[in-house]
Design goal:
The chain is of the alpha/beta class. The protein has one domain: Rossmann fold. Helix content is about 20%, strand content about 25%. It has four helices and eight strands, in the order βαβαββαββββα.
């Protein structure tokens, strides 16, 4: 299984870019899973549905299954940060790619999604796990001389608007994203 993290600030275009990358990888016959970090409370279930009623009654976990889909809803009794590695362990390990959206402080190899016009500083100058930057301002990407020797010494700069090309770059460099090999 290959794992890559797409990190960047809200509004930078991570979700839109991932939609295109997922479609491009799938068109190559590859199986893709996604882990999405949410910063706020979210709910996939709705009042009145049986699974919602079960959770409201106090169930810690509700597993919903049909012949087309399985969903596990787990209530955390105390707020806790979820480790991206523990979440990866819960996924089907036979998928070809896991695309992680968010988790910008993780130790996974990262593609920073960066649009200077959004108004946030870039992550790549200070994060050695960023190995590529998907941007609409390639001339503003800073090359850091202090990159670890086991990683690419020069950041790859990718066009944020070319998700198929980015997917091809991932496939071409797949060995760099083997989970646990970094």
């Amino acid at each position: 299984m290959k794992v890559v993290c797409f990190a960047g600030f809200s509004g930078s275009g991570k979700t839109t870019l991932l939609e295109g990358v997922i479609a491009a990888l799938k068109s190559r016959g590859l199986r893709v899973s996604v882990i999405k970090h949410a910063h706020h409370r979210f709910d996939m279930d709705h009042p009145g549905k049986d699974s919602y009623r079960h959770r409201e009654a106090g169930a810690v976990e509700v597993l919903i299954a049909s012949d087309k889909r399985v969903a596990l809803l787990r209530e955390l009794e105390q707020p806790q940060q979820q480790s991206v590695h523990s979440l990866l362990a819960q996924l089907d390990s036979t998928v070809d790619w896991v695309l992680v959206e968010g988790f910008k402080t993780s130790d996974l190899p990262k593609i920073e999604v960066w649009r200077p016009s959004v108004g946030h500083a870039a992550l790549h100058p200070d994060d050695a796990h960023v190995i590529a930057v998907a941007t609409d301002a390639p001339e503003q990407v800073q090359q850091s001389p202090a990159r670890p020797s086991d990683r690419q010494s020069v950041l790859q700069v990718l066009d944020i608007n070319q998700s198929a090309a980015l997917a091809q770059w991932l496939v071409d460099n797949g060995q760099r994203f083997e989970y646990g090999a970094y």
